[in-house]
Design a protein that fits this description.
- The protein has 418 residues and is an alpha/beta fold.
- Helix content is 38%, strand content 22%.
- Helix 5 packs across helix 6 and helix 10 packs across helix 11.
- The structure holds S-adenosyl-L-homocysteine.
- S-adenosyl-L-homocysteine (SAH) binds next to helix 4.
- It is an enzyme of class 2 (transferase).
- It catalyses: L-arginyl-[protein] + 2 S-adenosyl-L-methionine = N(omega),N(omega)'-dimethyl-L-arginyl-[protein] + 2 S-adenosyl-L-homocysteine + 2 H(+).
- One of its GO terms (molecular function) is protein-arginine omega-N symmetric methyltransferase activity.
């Protein structure tokens, strides 16, 4: 399993939540028939009352799954360096917004802000602000404690942010429910294990053509859900299956497409870059929809609302949805990206500075988790959206020798900080 998991909340709490969500879904299915997998996933994850992220959002060691920033501080530090390196390569603009989508417990932003603080002499004249896009009230509370020491306040109704505060390092932080609410401006975007949580549609090829996979109530067993195929083509089958498709089963995440379109438009207009890290493939995999609870794989249709539901990110689809408004880089494997960012050197420094054996073992263990191809090293990928001029001089075609070469993009190439 790509997503490594762990457990929070007793079974009793889990069962209570499952009961309410299942009753809600069963009523809906009986009243209006089967729903798409996307609709099911949206309900199970982000229903305002009973959704998994709304109520539990079990990221971290005591949650249902563990993520790279929760495994090692080095992960976030190297990403912080990536942003500084891109900021320098883009001519050190006087202000930027760091915008994170789905920040979980806030650990990644915390580690990035520590790097910004350590490199404050480099960033000294730059006006930095942090903008977090988070739907879960429970997780935004945890983020506020982590990042501001609990000193965040609800924003007035007329402001686009629903909460704001100041980071422990003195940087203003704002919370939003939707990327569209984040003010325009030069921005560095970050999406770590975000796109995999967005609702997918699933399609199956049959002898009679493509059908959408739907979720229905099982007539034989009370309150049990099952997959069925749409009797005919649905609007989604018309829109999302390419005529040249060769696979027999396809998953599409239109919401990811819409968000990437927005990111690409914003970067094209206002400048910046986006870094996306997630498990995924380049348009080759078929059935990847899965659930996690208590560190274990969990049946996606059982006890909805109590387990994390996820699907691999299709990077080829994200690239397509950027629609040429930005350049794209990757996907590149996590172990290659982190190696290029200098993880080996960082590990050596931390090992040298740590006196006790337990800390050294912990450092080596977390390095192995992030880098080992059998663990997270191969299945997680990095992907970036960058303005075209970051990769090719606008006037290169006419006068190839007139400009000094552009600095390589760190992570996708070796890091060169100048
Ligand atoms: N980036 C974090 C957390 C990943 S879990 C980490 O790597 O540890 C997914 C995150 O996305 C959670 O914070 C969840 O609440 C949030 N999320 C899920 N669906 C969302 C949506 N539609 N809009 C905004 N945030 C969402």
């Amino acid at each position: 399993a790509a997503r490594l998991c762990s457990g929070v909340g007793g079974e009793a709490e889990a069962a209570g939540g499952a009961g309410a969500m299942l009753r809600h879904l069963a009523r809906k299915l009986r009243a209006s028939g089967p729903v798409t997998v996307a609709e099911y996933m949206r309900e199970a994850l982000t229903n305002p009352g009973q959704g998994y992220y709304t109520r539990r959002g079990g990221v971290g060691e005591s949650g249902d799954f563990i993520t790279s920033p929760e495994i090692s501080q080095v992960f976030g530090e190297l990403i912080g360096i990536w942003y500084i390196s891109e900021w320098m390569a883009m001519g050190k603009p006087s202000t930027f917004q760091l915008v994170e989508l789905g920040p979980g417990r806030g650990t990644l932003t915390e580690d990035i802000l520590r790097v910004f603080k350590q490199l404050s002499s480099v960033l000294s004249k730059c006006d930095v602000s942090v903008h977090l896009v988070e739907v879960s009230p429970k997780l935004s509370e945890i983020q506020a404690v982590m990042l501001t020491g609990g000193k965040a306040q609800p924003s007035p109704e007329d402001e686009s942010a629903y909460m704001k505060g100041i980071s422990k390092t003195g940087i203003p932080i704002f919370w939003y429910r939707d990327i569209q609410d984040v003010p325009a401006g030069y921005s560095f975007y970050l999406a770590h294990e975000f796109f995999d949580a967005l609702p997918i549609h699933k399609f199956q090829r049959t002898e009679k053509g493509w059908h959408e996979v739907l979720v229905d109530i099982d007539p034989e067993v009370p309150d049990q859900l099952r997959f069925v195929l749409s009797p005919s083509r649905t609007p989604a089958t018309q829109n999302f299956i390419q005529p040249e498709e060769t696979r027999d089963h396809v998953e599409v995440c239109p919401e990811a497409g819409v968000i990437v379109q927005r990111l690409a438009s914003r970067i094209e207009k206002d400048g910046g870059a986006a870094l996306v890290a997630d498990y995924g493939h380049d348009g080759t995999k078929t059935d990847t929809f899965r659930g996690f609870r208590n560190h274990k794989l969990h049946d996606v249709l059982s006890a909805p609302g109590t387990a994390d539901l996820t699907a691999d990110v299709d990077f080829s689809y994200l690239r397509k949805m950027a629609q040429g408004k930005t350049a794209t880089l990757g996907p590149i494997k996590q172990r290659e990206f982190l190696k290029n960012m200098g993880i080996d050197l960082r590990l050596q420094v931390l090992l040298q500075n740590s006196g006790d054996t337990a800390t050294r073992e912990q450092l080596l263990h977390s390095y192995d988790m992030l880098m080992n191809p059998e663990k997270m090293g191969d299945c997680f990928n990095f992907f970036a959206l960058l303005p075209h001029h970051r990769l090719v001089h606008p006037d290169k075609k006419d006068k190839p020798e007139s400009k000094s070469p552009l600095p390589p993009v760190a992570g996708f190439n070796e890091l060169l900080l100048k």
